[in-house]
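REQUEST FORM: STRUCTURE PREDICTION
Request ID: SP-0412
Submitted by: Lab K.M.
Chain count: 1
Length (residues): 181
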Amino acid sequence: MTNTLTAVAAVARNGVIGVNNQLPWHIGEDLAHFRQLTMGGALIMGRATYESLPGPLPGRVCFVMTRQSGYGRDSLNAAVVPVCSLDEALSQAQATGRPRFVVGGAQVYAAAWPRLTDLQLTLVDDEPAGDAFFPDVDLSQWHQISRTPGDGFAFVHYQRHQMDTAARQGTVSDISAGASQ
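STATUS: Completed
RESULT:
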């Protein structure tokens, strides 16, 4: 069983990850990358993020964080598990033995930030308007493992230098500089 916890996100140069609970772009390669990366995994997400999807994601278990008591009891299937907190989501995801991925939204990324070991980012070469933002990435605390350029974007894998979850606080202003490297 692995203790890695990976955030997966598409992030614009200005840190935008969404507008009106939707992606502000459509990059087919990013959607395929997300599917390939998270297939077989345990995905942790907020309720609004889950509701923005077309339905349950095949081949993955989704832990949906919500404050709504009894959320989805009648409509969710076994691959979608409502949870009340990040701690509950992390614990139940760990118990599956599957790789764990935090996939949004902004509040869930922020809450999980001190515990993240890896970032799998699609850095989008754009600055759209938005209302949801990824936490700032302090590149002094992360080591770039790989970078695969695309047309107007790059897939970048970062790994945290030394995991000290109690002391780490994430602050994507530095990410713009990293996107052009």
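NOTES: The radius of gyration is 16 Å.
Reviewed by: T.R.
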